[in-house]
Design a protein that fits this description.
By secondary structure, the protein is α/β, with parallel strands linked by helices. 38% of the residues lie in helices and 14% in strands. The strands form 2 sheets. A 5-stranded parallel sheet has the order 7-6-5-8-9. β1, α2 and β2 form a beta-alpha-beta unit. The longest helix is centred in the last third of the chain and has 22 residues. The chain is globular.
């Protein structure tokens, strides 16, 4: 297998061959997860610790399920009530964790770069479950697997990413991954929700949804990151939905077989019409959730293999 990474901190340092290797393995786990018996002993005897400094439902549940299906001993640390709240530094936490000898550490943190700092201080594989506005690599990988399964390929597609680009780590990871796989990427949103360095991303930028969605293969909507906004980025949710919320009328500008995606949780009637989100002929939002477990299983297996001599599990 073409996999060299010892941590999964972001998409930026993965090559196209590593991305393909992970997606191929995840495809196998999709099949396993649809069987009655979903358990493997790939990570039997190993310990996985989930540390979520931000609230999460689907991502934490997905990582926990992935580890348990591979046979790992999984522990969830309640970081909101942890020693961090009592003044302990992140480095102190890392040293404490090191003494417990975990094999996999899954971390979500509100500050960009915090996960990288932990990875430098611990002796196990670290998976970034989202850090600030930086990256959310497993979300981009599960999105990629969803696209590949729906479209039969993951290259030379026209993909629109719409909404709150500026505050979205999901958008950043997807731009990196989809760019590496030779896709045409369009960003659509108001200027107030575009990152200042957008010109460096190698993408097309549109303010008008109808113009930006013209003949695209994939429409990826993003959640409004209200918790990261400290000013008036949009006039009102009603006005935002009118201009940038996805509905049947706007989707009609995309290709007839274009798929609709959303990383969740969705704000129905703000980012996307609820009926469209539930349309099994266009929406692959539930498939994204399913792919998440398989992608995280594949990522953990590959990271453990990369840390074994000659890449062989023992």
């Amino acid at each position: 297998m073409n996999w060299r990474a010892k941590h999964l901190l972001g998409i930026e340092h993965l090559g196209p061959d590593e991305i393909t290797t992970l997606l191929d393995l995840a495809d196998q786990y999709v099949s396993l997860n649809r069987q009655q018996i979903k358990h493997r002993d790939t990570l039997a005897g190993l310990t996985q610790i989930n540390m979520f400094f931000e609230n999460s439902t689907r991502t934490q549940a997905s990582f926990e399920l992935a580890g348990k299906r591979l046979g790992a001993d999984v522990m969830n640390m309640a970081m909101q009530a942890s020693s961090i709240k009592k003044g302990e530094t992140l480095i102190d936490t890392a040293m404490t964790l090191n003494a417990m000898h975990p094999d996999l550490l899954v971390v979500r943190h509100p500050h960009s770069g915090a996960v990288n700092l932990l990875a430098d201080k611990v002796n196990c594989a670290v998976l970034n479950a989202g850090d600030g506005r930086h990256e959310h690599p497993t979300q981009a990988l599960l999105d990629a697997l969803t696209i590949r399964r729906a479209k039969g390929r993951l290259h030379r597609l026209s993909i629109a990413i719409c909404g709150d680009i500026a505050h979205s780590r999901v958008a950043r990871s997807n731009i990196l991954l989809l760019g590496k796989m030779e896709n045409r990427i369009r960003l659509i949103g108001p200027p107030t929700l575009m990152p200042s360095q957008v010109a460096e991303f190698g993408v097309e930028v549109f303010e008008d949804m109808r113009e930006g969605l013209q003949d695209v293969d994939v429409v990826m909507m993003l959640r409004l990151q209200r918790e990261r906004m400290d000013g008036g980025f949009i006039p009102s949710e009603r006005e935002y939905y009118h201009r940038y919320g996805l509905d049947a009328e706007k989707l009609a500008y995309a290709k007839p077989d274009a798929i609709v995606m959303h990383p969740g949780p969705m704000n129905r009637g703000v980012e996307i019409d609820g009926t469209l989100a539930d349309d099994i002929n266009r929406s692959v939002i539930q498939e994204q959730v399913e792919m998440g477990v398989a992608v995280r299983m594949a990522a953990m297996e590959l990271l453990i293999q990369a840390r074994q001599p000659k890449g062989v599990l023992v």
